[in-house]
Amino acid sequence: MVNSNDLYDIPRPTLAKVVNIGGVGMQLKDVKPLAPEFQRIVDKAAGIVVFSFGSVTPSEKMPSSWKLAFIDAFKRFPKYHFIWRYVGTDLQDKLPPNVHVFKWLPQSDLLQNPKIKAFITHGGYNSVQESISAGVPLIAIPLFGDQPKNAILAERHRFAVSLRKSDISADVIAKTLDRILTDHSFSRNAKRLSQMVRKQPVSAAHLIVSWAQFVAEFKTLDNLVPAGTKLNFVQYHSLDVIAFLLSVSIMILFVLWKLLKFIIVELCCLFYRNKKEKKE
């Protein structure tokens, strides 16, 4: 079982034994009520932007220039409130009234709130899936690993804008935020994909349960074992095909060499014959 979904993941070769269960546990019915400290912010804001780089790349470790750039950009959108996952305490005296930092965020529950207008993320796969499930457009700033691929995936479905980390500045962030918040096509595309995932004929949760029961009943599934696992050494490495192509190539080269040799000999004979006739 693979944490992926055919509706939004990048096309790739697969097998009948692979079951895609991407998005499991992210349904609307799984959403929990927000804690009071988050609910108060949501209630008083016209719109919310969530900002989190996850636990692997905590934003408190980003360069100071980045931190100040984000704060400066957020100041330019007083109508919106920004909820930022930030563990450090070094920004407390620098935060404007519309920026709120928390050491931990109920990210999935928060994104499902209708007041969430955008999500600034590092592009982790779970974050992208949570955004799709909630129908929230993304600003992706990929840092490493699979994050650039995930950012491309989100852009491919036209619900995200990707920023290179080398381009981070207050002006660039503000321009990107303005684009995401004012161009409603990003939100429409995100919501459409979210509805597709929710209404897909067979849900991820159903696939997990039904396939687990199926395997438990029938044990090994030899019917689904790919033929490639039964190839011998010669077949697996295509040595027979390589040998055939190599033989054909050698034969063609041999014929060409013989033909070229014949042409050269004939030309030489013709040249010397003409030369001899001129002397006579």
Automatic annotation (TrEMBL):
Belongs to the UDP-glycosyltransferase family. GO terms for molecular function: glucuronosyltransferase activity. This is UDP-glucuronosyltransferase. Its main location: membrane. Keywords: Glycosyltransferase, Membrane, Signal, Transferase, Transmembrane, Transmembrane helix. GO terms for cellular component: membrane. It comes from Ancylostoma ceylanicum. PROSITE patterns: UDPGT (PS00375). Its EC number is 2.4.1.17. It is a single-pass membrane protein. The chain crosses the membrane at residues 241-272. It catalyses: glucuronate acceptor + UDP-alpha-D-glucuronate = acceptor beta-D-glucuronoside + UDP + H(+). It is found in: Membrane. InterPro entries: UDP-glycosyltransferase, UDP_glucos_trans, UDP_glycos_trans_CS.
